[in-house]
Description:
The protein is α/β, with parallel strands linked by helices.
Amino acid sequence: MREIILMSFAGPDRPSLSASLMQVLASHSVNILDVGQAVIHDQLSLGVVVESPSPMESALLMKAVLFRAHDLGLQVRFTPITTDSYHHWVGGQGKSRYIVTLLARKITAEHLAEVSRIVAENGLNIDGLARLSGRVMLEGEQSGPGKACVEFSVRGEPSHINQMRADFLRLANELSVDIAFQRDDAYRRNRRIVCFDMDSTLIEHEVIDELAKAAGVGEQVAAITERAMLGELDFKQSFEARVALLQGLNASVLAEIAVRLKLSEGAEHLVRTLKALGYKTAILSGGFTYFGQYLQGKLGIDYVYANDLEIVDGKVTGRVVGQVVDGQRKAELLREIANREGVRLEQVIAVGDGANDLPMLSIAGLGIAFRAKPLVRQNARQAISTLGLDGILYLLGVRDRDLEIGR
């Protein structure tokens, strides 16, 4: 009568350990039903579930494994598994899987405890836990702002998914962390396009505010901009009102402002890495084409759609040429780019900070509110406020050790 045994190994890691153990198992011709291995600070944890044809063969196998483990300096524990228990485990493979991504400047035990608590309260089981960020420097040894990420792989169906998302958002606000919750499916691992808002997302500025300062109407325009980004004003109407205030501005100011634009933290690294990984990138902006094209040349962005500021005789007229790029237009453009590239919307990422970004965030497979206004954070499925733009790579499952290609 066959037996199923879980063999759990623990001890100092070194080359050839796994090979040596597997040679013993191979010599007894057992079937491998499951296997998993992790190494933390040079300490090995290896689990193997084997199927042995009979109790006698199992006894011989365990004796051989015990001697080999001793020779290798490993501890080993044998746990019998009943056939019913194994069948129950196999039946669980159809359950939904999700990824919970925790991002912070520095991760503490409290962060892990609270995220784990919310996961457990929603009936989800943690199958795996992995650090995606690089190895952490000790307190006081790190220069500059740090970044840390831990990814939870969880299984099951949340008992109250909307409440769980609300709890994650509340926890993120309380602990100054970011928490993303995504279904772990083929689309998550095969995103192909990233569409960025420009102002206050890809760059730190609201360019129209910079133009307004140069035109001497800074306070008037800034007040309208803030209300529009908060969703208190219709974007198209507020945009036309702000642009009208720029009438008479010397067009040479545009070039002066462009060279002063400061990229958001992590933007250059993110775009460079995305390009190396074969992603297409786009700027979908309610700002101005001139600045989008400037960034396109600087970063190598593939597509730019924004508003064409009308200039006559070297002066800004206070009007734009063509259709205004508002929230709905951004969503339309995202669909057009996806169709042109032959990918599904589930494979598109959209990133923005304002209310006029919500339409494209809602239809993209991964919509991310970046350092966004409260209204946008509450309505977007994912949000990053703690780290820079390159924190998006963690949401794609990319580890820091994979990023040499982007440096």
